[in-house]
Write a structure and sequence with these properties.
Main location: Golgi
Oligomer: single chain
Low-confidence stretches: 447-457
EC number: 2.4.1.-
Distance between the termini: 52 Å
Structural class: alpha+beta
Largest sheet: 6 strands, antiparallel
GO cellular component, one term: Golgi cisterna membrane
Strand content: 15-25%
Radius of gyration: 24 Å
Keywords: Disulfide bond, Glycoprotein, Glycosyltransferase, Golgi apparatus, Lectin, Manganese, Membrane, Metal-binding, Secreted, Signal-anchor, Transferase, Transmembrane, Transmembrane helix
Mean pLDDT: 94
Pfam families: Glycos_transf_2, Ricin_B_lectin
Bound molecules: uridine-diphosphate-N-acetylgalactosamine, manganese (II) ion
Number of helices: 15
Number of strands: 22
Helix content: 25-40%
Length: 457
């Protein structure tokens, strides 16, 4: 079992013991189970890209799509092989899927290209009015498709994601994902789940079966109208292998007049892995940084500095030519990133308004506040200033928080310690006042100790 785990970074032995058409629990909210949808929903092609995927997970994905989608709504399944190096994914795969009751096509990338260009190929070869993308280790549950297509029928500029349930990488147990989290991102441009804020609960008048407007998508599982996908510029084909494309398309959808939702009545499982099983030709960091730079340069305006200042070194990565993506933004007259932060993601980790972004230095001792790469609920540290950004970057925000990425400095006891906690936006223990006069005075008075001056860079 341990040896086989390494092949795909999940318990392949367990996967091989489970039927392709296994029964799954119906994890939907009660209110979802008897919703009615129009008869004339648009039909979808399902595009699944893979590189060296396991036979059992790939075919369980295909089987679950076919078994749990109304036949009238499923145009075809397109499998895009991103230059896999496994014999069983060649002719045996083609022969196996030929027997299925829905057309399943296998197309091949000529060379390893990454999931972005592989999806572009799959999309261009498919024919359904809607394109639904899935990872190659998913399982669709009962009723997953209708609520997605219904939203697109209502408004073709709505891009929709299911709730992503968790298939354990260890046991392949199926566990319901939460309808109370939505997509965000941190300063490092990592996609993260955050709690659905109160304003979004209020907008839906507390009805959890209504779709959640989400600032970003996880990336792997979504449906989009084919013509709308074209109109807003598909994907950035200059991105390689993996990463960044999910934030890029999320920003683009919102900034260019679309809507991005998590449809809480639709559940699809996904095997989340702790490590990547495949190679990144050219280096993992290099590729992800390049992709992220492309999206930061095109979509984030001056807010890209949060990314650059916390990830020292990233500005040295060559991101290629972005002129066609910038002119796309021009052509579509997309709104600025500040609009997105204000209207779509006011609870963002990147503050829309802030006084300063940089280090917090004791000018006497030349020591800086440093998050020491510690995690939530730990103390903030102090370390020699290195001027390299990274762990020494803080922002003093318009809400008077001092935050480092998605954590806020927090003092609950008199005389400290100063902890790093989740930002709660409620001031209280996370409110920091800055008085330049007192600061100057104290700096002159004390030559050591804990007094900190805020310096803007
Ligand atoms: C998440 C997304 C994934 C993608 C990625 C960011 C979910 C559930 N998954 O990562 O879809 O948006 O974030 O880029 O939201 N693949 C290729 N060629 C490659 C590398 C990967 O075809 O060079 C395939 C791979 O076999 C899989 C899919 O792309 O079917 C996504 O890759 P992953 O499963 O390793 O990504 P994941 O789930 O960690
Ligand atoms: Mn995946």
């Amino acid at each position: 079992m341990k040896e086989m785990f390494k092949i795909n970074q999940f318990n392949l032995m367990a996967s091989e013991m489970i039927a392709f058409n296994r029964t799954l629990p119906d994890v939907r909210l009660e209110g979802c189970k008897n919703k009615l949808y129009p008869d004339d929903l648009p039909r979808t092609s399902v595009v699944i890209v893979f590189h060296n995927e396991a036979w059992s997970t790939l075919l369980r994905t295909v089987r679950s799509v076919i078994d749990r989608s109304p036949k009238s709504l499923l145009e075809e399944v397109v499998l895009v092989d991103d230059a896999s190096e496994r014999d069983f994914l060649k002719r045996p795969l083609e022969q196996y899927v030929r027997r299925m009751e829905i057309p399943v096509r296998v197309v091949r990338m000529e060379q390893r290209s990454g999931l972005i260009r592989a999806r572009l190929k799959g999309a261009s070869l498919s024919t359904g009015q809607v394109i639904t993308f899935l990872d190659a280790h998913c399982e669709c549950t009962i009723g997953w498709l209708e609520p997605l297509l219904a939203r697109i029928k209502l408004d073709r500029k709505t891009v929709v994601c299911p709730i992503i349930d968790v298939i354990s990488d260890d046991t392949f147990e199926y566990m319901a994902g939460s309808d109370m989290t939505y997509g965000g991102f941190n300063w490092k441009l990592n996609f993260r789940w955050y709690p659905v804020p109160q304003r979004e609960m209020d907008r839906r008048k507390g009805d959890r079966t209504l779709p959640v407007r989400t600032p970003t998508m996880a990336g792997g599982l979504f449906s989009i109208d084919r013509d709308y996908f074209q109109e807003i510029g598909t994907y950035d084909a200059g991105m390689d292998i993996w990463g960044g494309e999910n934030l890029e398309i999320s920003f683009r959808i919102w900034q260019c007049g679309g809507t991005l939702e998590i449809v809480t009545c639709s559940h699809v499982g996904h095997v989340f892995r702790k490590a990547t099983p495949y190679t990144f030709p050219g280096g993992t960091g290099q590729i992800i940084n390049k992709n992220n730079r492309r999206l930061a340069e095109v979509w984030m305006d001056q807010f890209k500095n949060f990314f650059y200042i916390i990830s020292p070194g990233v500005t040295k990565v060559d991101y290629g030519d972005i002129t066609s993506r910038s002119s796309l933004r021009q052509k579509l007259q997309c709104k600025p990133f500040s609009w997105y932060l204000e209207n779509v993601y006011p609870d963002s980790q990147i503050p829309r308004h802030y006084y300063s972004l940089g280090e917090i230095r004791n000018v006497e001792t030349n020591q800086c506040l440093d998050n020491m790469a510690r995690k939530e609920n730990e103390k903030v540290g102090i370390f020699n200033c290195h001027g390299m950004g990274g762990n020494q970057v803080f922002s003093y925000t318009a809400n008077k928080e001092i935050r480092t990425d998605d954590l806020c400095l927090d003092v609950s006891k008199l005389n400290g310690p100063v902890m790093m906690l989740k930002c709660h936006h409620l001031k209280g223990n996370q409110l920091w006042d800055y008085d330049p006069m007192v600061c100057l005075f104290l700096c002159l008075l004390f030559d050591s100790g804990l007094f900190l001056c805020l310096l803007s860079l």
